[in-house]
Amino acid sequence: MVARINLGLAAILALALFLFGFGYSEVGYFFEHCEQAVTSPEAARANPYFANIPPADLARRAKDRMWEGATHASLLSGAAAVLLVLCIYELRLIHKMERSVSDKPKGLTPM
After folding, report:
1. Residue 53 CB partners (closer than 8 Å, separation 6+)
2. Per residue in 11-57, pLDDT tens?
3. Cβ atoms of residues 11 and 84 within 8 Å
4. What digits encode the pLDDT tens for the residues 97-108?
5. What is the pTM of this model?
6. Closest CA to 15 of 70, 85, 102, 63
7. What residue segments make up the domains of the chain, in order of their start?
8. CA–CA distances in Å: residue 12 to residues 20, 24, 47, 84
9. Residue 49, C-beta contacts closer than 8 angstroms, at least 6 positions apart
């Protein structure tokens, strides 16, 4: 019973990791603002974060940040998928053990 609860918690963690990795929102947000700043100098001046960064440097940073975020998202999603597969495998093993124990005859058995 405790093993099933632990596996359930691990599966919830894996799903949370997968969803977080899949929707890595900071990268999209940063890239969108960098794109606006590169295409529109007014937008760059309006945003204090981008005001002192040259447009060429901003484009390079946006590209680097996008690849960094994509790498993190891929690693998180991959780790979550592996964790889910391990949970399913462990659950199958637990189920097989419970079935093999319940198939044995009840009562005293000779040595």
Report:
1. 37, 44, 61
2. 777 777 766 666 665 556 666 666 666 666 666 666 666 667 777 77
3. yes
4. 877 776 666 666
5. 0.51
6. 85
7. 2-102
8. 12, 18, 38, 9
9. 33
